[in-house]
Every structure is written in C-alpha cells, then in structure tokens.
Amino acid sequence: MALDLYSPTPASNSNPAEIVASIEHLLAKILSLLPLRSLLRFKSVSKHWLSLITNPIFTHLRNPNPNPPVALFLPIAKRQSFDFEFIPFRAEQSINPPFTRLDFTEDPSGIKIIQSCNGLLLCCSISEPNRRFYVCNPTAKAFRELPKPGIKVSNSICGMSLAFNPVESRYYNVVCVWSLGVEDRTNNAQFTIGVYSSRTDSWRLRGEGFTALVNFERGVFWNGAINWMGVGNGESLYFDVERHVFDKMPMLPLPYGWNSRSNYYFDESCDHLHFVEMRCPTIDFNVYEMKRDYSEWFVKYKVDLRPVVAANRDMILGRINPIGWYTFVFSVLAVVRGEREEDSFLVLQTPSRSIRYNLVCKTFENLHEFEGNMVNGSLKYPSINGFQYIESLCCV
C-alpha cells in the first residue's frame, strides 16, 4: 500500500482522490498518538487498518528512532520446557511481561528462544527430532512456523539467524547454516546456506559450500548482515543478506595474550554492534564497537567494576593463591545504547541480582533480585546473554 503520511489538507475544490488521501493522512496522525496496546487491538479492525499500522512509514512517523529495548528475557531451563525471567531496564518502571513461558505456539515439545532481533524472536522446538522453527512477536503474541528448507537438513543445522529491520521493510529473512557432512583437503567441515524470505514464504538455497571455524549458533543481525564470531583463533565472518555474499570481519584488538575467545558478549543495540571479552580475574574491560564500513573494532567504553564489587561482595569468589589476585563472578547480560550517549548502560549479572551500570557516568543501580538460593560463587544464568525485549507492531 502506498502511504503518504505528509499529504496536505485538500482545498474545498479537491477531487475525491485528494480527499481520500487527506483522510488517510489524518487517520495515520491520530493512530500514531495512541499507545502500542491500543494499536495492537486496532490491527484487527480491517485489512486497511492492518496495512496502515504495519507500514514502515507509519512506524517511522510514530517512532522516528527505532524502538529501544525495554527489558530482557532470561531463560530458566526445566525438564520439558523453558520459563523466562523478565527484567525491565528501569527498576522504578512497572512493565507487565508479555509471557513467562512460550506456550502460544502449541508446539508439543515446547520452544526456546534462539535470537532477539528488533522486536521479533527466532525460536525453535526443544526436542531434536523434527525440530520446528518459529518467528514470534511477543508483544502481539503472534507467531509463524517456518517451512522446511526443502531438503533434509534438520539434523545438520549449525545455526539459524533472524534478519529484520522494521525501519526499511515489514518483511524479514532467516539465514540457515547447515553442515554438508563432508570435509575439504585440510579436513575442515563444509557448510552451505539457505535464506528464507517472509515476503515470498520460501527458501532460496546457496549452492556452493564453504569452510569456516565460526560459532553459527550466535548470529547477530547488524548493518544488513548476519555477523558471527570465530571460534578460538578462527576468523569472524558476516553474510550480506540481500547480496548473498560473505566477507571477513577485522580482528579484535584484544590485550596481549588474549588470542582466543571464550567467555564473551556479542550483540547489537540501536544499530551498534558490540563485543565484550570477560577474562577472570579482570574486572576492568573494554566495550568494543565495529565501524560501519567493517574497517575496524574500536574501544567505545572502558569499564571498571571496582565500585560495583565494593557494593556487591558476593561477586568476590576468592584468591587464586594467598598473595595473588582475587577471582570474581559476574557476566554481561546486555549492552544497551541510549538515545543520548549518557543514557547507554550495561546490564550485569552477579550471583544474587542484576545491575544497571551507566557506561558514561559510571553510576549503577540494582535492577532485579534473583529468586531462589544460589550456589556460592555461581551465576543463575551462566554462559548466556539476555534476549532483549522491544515492543513491536510488526506482523509475522
């Protein structure tokens, strides 16, 4: 639907087409002032209203800047399901969680979150045989089950990644990487790629294989591409979703001796790609950002957690030796960029709580107390980044 949200008010002698355009403009202006929950209900009024509300131009009119994340989902693994702890980014702000369990898909085995991307969630079945994949809008409690790629790859899928930019289009892509089960002359595994388009509801398979030493399970959509970190000393890659081409990412300027990646945070926030390396016993570290032309990583923020440790003694695990360093227990759950630079912050996990740490002002506050008795010196959510929650009107 062509939508001109800036149509002027027609003169009294305007033709019917101009009058209709004016009414469309007025309706869009009125709807743009309504809260998101009301807009979700109004999407069911008619196909016309649905098309208008989900139009990227309307989305931009309502929010000139992309919606920022307002909370995190943290998965709680159970025997046959995943529950979720919901952590708003403001301690004083009350936000009702859109769900505590992903049960609206009616998948018999239950589902878990793989990735969060600009308001949508990529999810999959918990059980391995005949695994299903879904794209969900948690705000609208809507989902779409993805069709199979057309070949038997479910048991050899190495990673699925969601690519979605609501500012540019209402449609999204899903990138699937799977193993071909063969090796090249250097005994490196061969992979290939398929791309699903919600516009056509179909897969496009990329025929040729490639080799890589990459963690395909942790793909991040940024700058029109899916980005993956290398494993160990492997090179990091990105895949341009529109052009269907690969390229290498530059090496990280890590401190001397840090030549491999083990415990790290890698994600996007408000159109910025970040990397954080966490090495015990270090409590001061850098937040790196990638330049938009992929020319280099640079240090965006320097973090010193000594004041946080002083106020949260459960972060101290003990000494490596009687005269050596302390070891510390924490992780980075999220790096969140604010509309203003001074509003950017980290979400930290300690054994007992989550903490919001301002990256510019260096202030911090408690966000959420974790329930249950934690084992001394352990984290409730080890080896995990949080899944960001962004309120969205988008259809799946």
UniProtKB/TrEMBL annotation:
Superkingdom of origin organism: Eukaryota
F-box associated beta-propeller type domain boundaries: 108-257
A Pfam short name: FBA_1
UniProt cross-references to InterPro entries, sorted A to Z: At3g26010-like, F-box-assoc_dom_typ1, F-box-assoc_interact_dom, F-box-like_dom_sf, F-box_dom
The F-box domain, residue ranges: 25-60
Record protein name field: F-box domain-containing protein
